[in-house]
Amino acid sequence: MELTESYTLPVPQRRTWEALNDTTILQASIPGCETIEADGENAYAVSLSASVGPVKARFKGRMLLTDIDAPNTYTIVFEGQGGAAGFGKGSAHVTLEPEGNESTKLTYTAHAQIGGKLAQIGSRLVDGAARKIAGEFFKRFSAQVTGETPANGEALEAAGEAEEDEDESEDTSRANSAEDAAESAHTGKGSKSWKAWISKF
């Protein structure tokens, strides 16, 4: 998978760089992030929950910052394990460029490999989920660095999306239960499909 995006942030380049290296801001900005802790020089241990289609899991991994040229660019090398859900690993090259005195253009190109159940649900679904997560990250990140809070409309929209995700999860769970019942009736055993097992995370 390859993903390239650009965003304009309403803060100076130096402030953007500092925020990108602030674990408190990053934890508040990354969707589903539970913890980010220092794990060596320019390295961080990360724990987060994520959903990609029918696959939902808690991932634990590590990020390493390399090729650092403050406050202009660095490369993030990452890897994460999500148990039976699968794994992900890759890198992202991040570049900052000033746009006037009070804005910064952030561009990144990410390359990633996935395996396990994640690799079985289709690249289009995975790409769509990655773009949605990235978009949400930069919306939260921008709010963090400017000290702004989402408008009421955005908050309601976010709540609606969360409710849709919950409804989808419930529908998937019901469908998986029906699938399990059919499978058990056919095999005469109490075995469950991987989808039902994954839905527990």
Question: What keywords describe this structure?
Answer:
Alpha-D-Glucose-1,6-Bisphosphate, Chain A, domain 4; Carbon monoxide dehydrogenase; CO_DH_gsu; 201 residues; alpha+beta; START-like_dom_sf; seven-stranded antiparallel sheet; 2 domains; disordered C terminus
Task: Give a quick rundown of the structure.
Helices cover 40% and strands 36% of the residues.
Shape: globular
List the strand order in the largest sheet. Answer: 1-7-6-5-4-3-2
Strand content: 35-45%
Output the structural class: alpha+beta
Q: How many individual helices?
A: 5
- CATH architecture type of the largest domain: 2-Layer Sandwich
Q: Helix proportion of residues, in percent? A: 25-40%
- Taking the alpha carbons of the first and last residues, their distance comes to 24 Å
Q: Major sheet, described briefly?
A: 7 strands, antiparallel
CATH-defined superfamily of the largest domain: START domain
Q: Name the CATH class of the largest domain.
A: Alpha Beta
The low-confidence parts are 151-201
Radius of gyration: 19 Å
What is the N-to-C succession of helices and strands?
A: EHHEEEEEEHHH
Number of strands: 7
Rounded mean pLDDT score: 79
Total domains: 2
CATH fold name of the largest domain, please? Alpha-D-Glucose-1,6-Bisphosphate, Chain A, domain 4
